[in-house]
Amino acid sequence: MYDLNISPDAVAEVAEEFIRGQVERLERDGVIVGVSGGIDSAVAVTLAVRAVGPDRVLGLLLPERDSSPHSSEDGRLLMEQLGAPYEETDITSTLTELGIYRKAPIRLLVNRRIKAEAVRATLKLYARRLGENPFMTGLRGTRGRPGQGVIDAGHAYARAKHRIRMVTLYFRAELDNRLVLGTANRTETLTGSMVKWGDSVADAQPLLHLLKTQVRQLARFLGVPSSIIEKPPTADLMPGVDDEMAFGMSYEILDRVLFGLEQGDSLDDIATLAGTSAKTIENVMEMQRRSQHMRELPPAPHFPDVRPV
Question: What is the reported pTM?
């Protein structure tokens, strides 16, 4: 079994020094963090408070009409526990004005539980049609795939929310000369579960080298509320969908596979040490291949014969 345990006190110390250093390097007066009520943002904002003090950290809660009410409750609980200021900006009206909600049929359903059941049923239907998880399909273009229009609309619907949150965060940050502290971890970055030009964007990313299960270890060390640590991780963009459903495996398995791949171990060794199948490992490798473009700067042509005038 792979040992993914960290020394959380040492990791916290390095992360806090990193945050202080970036605030000074970029000459910012403070830090802003998008607080979703999830574990990654909880760890990021807690590290920020420990690094520069609560008075220099602003938590920004950005709910919208599909968000779970528990997300904002957990976000407020965390910020009050930290003694740091926070603001709540509902982005529903912005998404409505842009026509985002018209892209998903669940807008016609009122009850949140029924919405969740409808989303799960739709995902299962398209997984059968595609022969793979729709998340995997969406990592690259969908040209010629069964149900292309529906899949494209679903991805546009979800990803636009991340991008509006990013714009809102940067607008608020620049008004106050604050550093935007990101919440991306290594697991989601390596598998493409972050949104390109959405939650992948920040001035500094203190968790970028930590796998999701390691972020959870750090959260426990930092005293993040158990209601945040123990709930199923989700981007909270559509009712009924959580991260592990999208991946088709648990974070524990996924992180072990990613670790084994980075070690350069054979597929047989990874299967044994991660406690999974060769098929699961191949799926993770395919996620990495398809999401490579999300970890790179946009390509540009090379003009070998261009000379300065």
Answer: 0.93
Q: Where are the domains of the chain?
A: 8-292
Digit-coded pLDDT (tens) for 37-68: 999 999 999 999 999 999 999 999 999 999 99
The 86-88 sheet, strands edge to edge: 86-88, 57-61, 30-34, 178-180
3-state helix, strand, coil in the chain (%, to 5): 60, 5, 35
Residue type, 235: A
Give the amino acid at 170: Y
CATH 3.30.160.100 corresponds to the domain 8-292: no
Query: Can you read off the two tokens belonging to residue 129?
Result: 């049609």
CB 199 within 8 A of CB 184: yes
Beta-bridged to residue 195, according to DSSP, are: none
Looking at beta carbons, which pairs linking 242-251 to residues 24 or more positions away fall under 8 Å?
A: 243/188, 243/193, 245/120, 245/123, 246/133, 246/135, 246/193, 247/133, 247/135, 247/191, 247/193, 247/287, 248/133, 248/135, 248/283, 249/276, 249/280, 249/283, 251/187, 251/212, 251/213
